[in-house]
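Regression check, calcium ion case 308:
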Amino acid sequence: MIGYFLLVEGCSPILAQQERESRKPKTPTVTSTQPPISFTMTPMMDLTPVSGVTLSDFKPGDPHGTPQIIYDQTCVSTSAEHKAPGGDDYTQGRFERPFDKEMNYLPSLDIVRAELVRSGYGWDYFTIVLEAEPASSPVVYGLELDLNIDGRGDFLIQLPAPTSSTWTETGVKMFWDSDGDVGGRVINRSDPHGYKGSGFESIKIDANAGKTRGQIWSRLISNGLQIAVAENLTGGKNSKFSWKPYTDGNPFPPTWYDIDDYFTMEQAGSAIVGDLDYPLKAVYTVDNTCRGLSGLTPSGNEQGVCPP
Ligand SMILES: [Ca+2]
Ligand SMILES: [Ca+2]
Ligand SMILES: [Ca+2]
Ligand SMILES: [Ca+2]
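Current build output:
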């Protein structure tokens, strides 16, 4: 079974790319059907450092406090068998696929655990722990954030592996779904007939290009990385949102999200031995977790989120 979620404390592209090979979903369980909605949320992009502190001084420090933790399936125990032991539920957007196209295991992509500390003084600290040191480009690491918890991701944060324990903005990008079509017609599930919309078509942050710097930083930790996100981006210290860490070894263009809408199950393949669609096909070298809810206690009715 997939990872589980522990809420400990209330305080919580790369466009033109070759088509990864391809191509009908098994019969997905559809529990929510509605057309894409018009998305009108305007994210706050302006930092408001406290009086006397300049923007250049407004950098992350160290996370303190009890983290919210998401545990994830790992594939170490079955790597020699070129398969995942579980934790992959493609039609619900849960990927456990830290393997290349030949089903060779890639521990640098295998998420073990993720943590979130909301400091309350400017930064949300996300930690992604892997089975090995993060791998270099083209591998990317990141977070999908759903700011209104409607099941449609709003921001896609993406960055290369940081190379030191010093906070850096190198390579940081954040994409935005400005027209609210991420998730397709069936939210939190693969669309039965597939869905190719505009995905995360807008870019809000591109640090290397000098576009909106200072709001997202990353640094290396032992077998993983940390990402600090200015809390303005997530709606302030008392906001509610969901977060979903991911790794991607051969990055999908942000415009292809949700990946499980862009590719059907049959096209995507499976990492689970015994599955009809084994082995992996179009959707490989990826791992993610369930969506962690932050700022509220899961009721159990939210779709696509980690079970309480
Ligand atoms: Ca994993
Ligand atoms: Ca949303
Ligand atoms: Ca969908
Ligand atoms: Ca879009």
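Comparison notes: Residues 1-44+58-298 form one domain. The chain is about 5% helix and 25% strand. No diff flagged against the previous build.
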